[in-house]
Amino acid sequence: MTGQTSSPQNQDAERTTAPRRIVVAGGGPAAHRFADAMHARGLDGWNVTVLTEEAHLPYDRVALSKALTDADVDLTLGAASMWDHEALTLRTGERVTGIDIAGKAVTTAAGTVYPYDELVIATGSDAARLPIPGSELTHVYRTLEDVWAINKAIADLAEKLGRKVNAVTIGGGLLGLESAAGTEQLGATPIVINGSPWLMNTQLDEGAGQALGRLIEAKGFTVHGGVFPSEVLSDDDGQVTGVLMADGRIVDADLVIVAIGVKPRDELFRTANGPEIEGTAPLFDLGPRGGVVISDGCETQVPGIWAIGEVANFGGMCLGLVAPANTMAEIVADRLHGGDATFPGFDTATKLKLSGVDVASFGDAFARTERALEIVYADPARGVYQKIVTTDDAKTLLGGIFVGDAAPYTSLRPMLGRELAAEPGAYLTAAGGGDAPDTELPDDAILCSCNNVSAGTIRDTVNGCGACDGNAPVQELGDLKGCTRAGTSCGSCVPMLKKLLETELTKSGVAVSKALCEHIELSRQELFETIRVLELSSFEEVMARYGTGAGCDICKPTIANILASQNSAYVLDAGRGTLQDTNDRALANMQKDGTYSVVPRIAGGEITPKKLGVIAAVAEQYGLYTKITGGQRIDMFGARLEQLPEIWKLLVDAGFESGQAYGKSLRTVKSCVGSTWCRFGVQDAVAMAIALELRYRGLRSPHKLKMGVSGCARECAEARGKDVGVIATADGWNLYVGGNGGATPAHAQLLAKDLDDETLIKYIDRYFMYYIRTADRLQRTARWQEELDGGIKHVEDVVVHDTLGIAEDLEAAMAKHVDTYVDEWADTLKDPERLRRFRSFVNAPDQKDDSITFVPDERGQMRPATAEEKGAVLIASSIRVRPSDAPASAQERPAQESKV
């Protein structure tokens, strides 16, 4: 099946007489991209008319959520001046209603006829509606008018009801979750109803979907999964009151948004007919689920009629993604200019952020390729799910899924179908190995899939843009985006784009900007010093002086971390709670089933029998799974959010304090038994470990910190695998710095030898404070030391020899931390307002989360139920459940990922 158009030679001849007329039906992103592509290639001999039924210039539908929360935001695509070209015309308020194929003209709803030589259909799609009673009372999420109406409705209802609005979104896919996140930002209570058992089931596997559900539920969302709505309920005045579910439950609702998908607007193809072909078979092939079938050149079955975007069906699919729509638009423009570009198929890569939760999926995310390998990391402490799919030799990248931490996506996405530079596990950054390995992208690797921009194009532009006067190099990110279009659509490639720009500039000897993010021009180091010197104490103060906009997921937690590093004020007070990551907001680590772990501090691994008894009693009372961690502490798993204050009350009363397992701060100081018991020990390792842990507890830093103290050279505490390691000698202590474990382990390096206690602590004070002040965000000490000019020698000069003259200042800063330290959980328990954070349901403070269920495993312990088991008899709706044949000491544990 191939459509036809005039040959390039005939087109050249015709252009000498009259411009060829192109009519575009539709004014969305695909239509705009086509007009832009024609404009870029030259409009000599062409006359392009774009007919859009909306009253606006073409706008970015990907960013509709911005318009939902800010009705004044401008989403206009490109420069409005483009439409000033004499050969390019945009007609707003003109909806095409019919095609006269024989007469080669289209008619609009206003009765205007537009003749064409080439017709490009870009009518997009409509929001799907629910065929249930009450659906006329619902909103949809598709156009600017739609989101403006939702915005106004929430504001009006909040004023009318005098409380938070219950905003129900039906649909747990991309649009549905964006809609729900928008209602949450508008102050409503977000509730999601999803027919699939897990969210975003088209893009995510079950493990990732369940992880996403737990994460957003922790942010105040309520998710009803695996059940469909059957009716939208209302009162006599037509005000929505709830949604009746297929299982008979009623979900309270004041407003309902339907975001269950889209359907192609292909009615022009269904009704198209000319006077000479009346009564003949349909002219266009339509897909079973709609959309006009196109060739790989984006031609329909009728010569001179093309289709692009969501209305086009290729390979049996119509997809509402920006990348394929842009590609189709470029292909048609290329072919009309005599080219032979072809459509390669749909790129289904997806990346978005929902209320601070990163989600990304690309390639063969479900591992459908024969003999594909799945390398999975499910973090039970932070609710993070990362999966990489490779060929069976673990070399070639086939796809991936990331939830909670999508940092590897930007570097992995361009490597799809290529051999990885390192073993796959090294890219699972959530495993604690630091950043993903540096990847040198080949020139032909597609860096920006939305606009089909290769890494080679970026390099060429940085070193000399052919579109600029004098082929000048491009040195600013904004200019690079403007010249290449990379990063101008969904924006997910911007981090990699920025990294490639900096790499090329560095090669050219150009100084590179170290801006923290697009909102803060200062680097983290500069920002830290600025906040310290000016004694700024709030996010608002920092942004007012040195930032723009409302901030982002980079600068918000970074500023919160810096503020916490410089004072010991309660981390969730004064508006700082909204800046924190999930675990910091709960003062606990979220687990894979939505419960939390409790980790009291056990300094140096030393604990009395009495305190061991307290932990045992608490675990028994709340039915918690207990495990001794690698850091010599006892971790208790399975606590619900509302149980955390109760559990910590018992622990604090017994003398325990927070172990800070949830924060970017000191975690543990591991020790051997030292000279107290061991016949080889030469120093009291336990006493030193306890002193160090009590000194640095609660110390907020760019990344987590771990320490180790070994009582002799046999190194039983593995101190050289820690950020700071202390190893006893006959003459004192050897101090090692900059080590870490994880996927890319690093041995700590010797900083000083045979130190007495006082000097040892003085050097550690200086080292930690220097690291905290100068490291980048989320940078481990090992990577920080490597990147310092001079490496360990520079560290020695600053810490030991005080070559910068700042030692006294660093020591004073640490002394301030030690003097002002207050246990966060003890502080929390004193304040009823702070305790209000610890509720499973904001609008039902006394209600427990009954979705958390456990089943016994083969060892007589308990674990979270799978989706299938939740419908079985063995389900336990309470955490405090034990099988009848299990011993009294039976514990509970979470299920292992089946694909790890």
TrEMBL record:
GO MF annotation terms: nitrite reductase (NADH) activity
Domain BFD-like [2Fe-2S]-binding residue range list: 446-502, 522-564
CDD domains: NirB_Fer2_BFD-like_2 (cd19944)
Catalysed transformations (reactions): hydrogen sulfide + 6 oxidized [2Fe-2S]-[ferredoxin] + 3 H2O = sulfite + 6 reduced [2Fe-2S]-[ferredoxin] + 7 H(+)
Positions of region (Disordered): 879-900
Function statement: Catalyzes the reduction of sulfite to sulfide, a step in the biosynthesis of sulfur-containing amino acids and cofactors.
Descriptive protein name: assimilatory sulfite reductase (ferredoxin)
Organism: Arthrobacter ginsengisoli
